[in-house]
C-alpha cells in the first residue's frame, strides 16, 4: 500500500468514530515491548491475593525479592548489550565464581577493598577480553567460545580455591558489596538502580548504544555505515565480563565469602530475564528497563512459589511454563 493510499484510508474513518481510531491505535501498539510489564503486574496481583496471609506483600518480603533479584539484574543489563549485538555470553556464571574468589583472596592477603575491587573486576575483564578476541579476531561463534570459557573459568575457580570457601572478615567490604542496608533499604538495590540507569542511558542515549543495536540488527549495513562491528562486539563482551565480576563481588559480600559454586546456573536466569524484557534473541532490539523488570518477574515468581511451599521440581516446572507463556504471548502479539 502506498503512502497516499494509507492517508486516504485514514481519511475514510469518521472523525467522531472513536472506536475505529482506538482499534487502529491498538493494531499498531507494540504489545511485545510492554508484555513483561503486564506479566509482572499480573503475577504480583495473583500472589498478593493468594498469599496475603503468608506475608508475601510485607515490606520484609518485598525487600527480599530485591535482594534475590539485584545481582541477576546487574548481569542481565550487561547481557542486554551482548544479545542486542547478536552475540551470547554463557560464561558469566563461572566468572561470578572466579571473581568472588579473587576478591576474597585479595582481602585475605591484606590488599584491602581497593585490591579486592581490582581483583574482582579485573578477573571479569580478562575473561571478557579473551571471549571478545576469540569472537572478533579468531571468528569463533560466541556460543562456542563462552561455553568453553564457562568450563575453563569454573575449573580455574576450583583450582585456586581447592574447592574450599574463602572467608571475608572485612566489615566495610561486606557492607558496601551486598550485606549493608541504608536505613531499611538494601545496598544491593542501589547497585541495581545504578547499573540499570547507566545501562539505559548507554543503550538509548549514546553513540555506542546505537552502534550496538545497529550491529545486531544488520552487520553488513552497520559496516557500510562506518561502524566498527568487531570493536563493538569486543566491548560488549568485555562489559559483560566486568559486570559478572561485579556480581561475583556482590555475591561474596552478601555471603561473607568467595565460593566456586556462586553463579551456577545464573546464565539461564540472566538470558531469560533479557528475553522476557523484550530484547530480541536475534539482535538489533534491546531494552534495559524491560530486562530489569524481567529479572524482577522471575524473582517474584521464585519467591511466591517458595512461600507456597512447593518443592524445587514443582517450582522449576511452573516457572518455566510462566516464562514460556509470557514470551509466546509477546511474540504472538508482536506478529499481529
UniProtKB/TrEMBL annotation:
Protein localization: Cell membrane
Species for this entry: Cohnella yongneupensis
DNA-binding is among the record's keywords: no
Alphabetized InterPro entries for the sequence: ABC_transp_permease (IPR001851)
Domain of life the protein comes from: Bacteria
Protein topology in the membrane: Multi-pass membrane protein
Record's keyword terms, sorted: Cell membrane, Membrane, Transmembrane, Transmembrane helix
Protein name as annotated: ABC transporter permease
PANTHER family according to UniProt: ABC TRANSPORTER PERMEASE PROTEIN YPHD-RELATED-RELATED, RIBOSE IMPORT PERMEASE PROTEIN RBSC
Transmembrane segments annotated in the record for this chain: 34-52, 64-83, 113-136, 143-164, 184-203, 234-251, 271-298
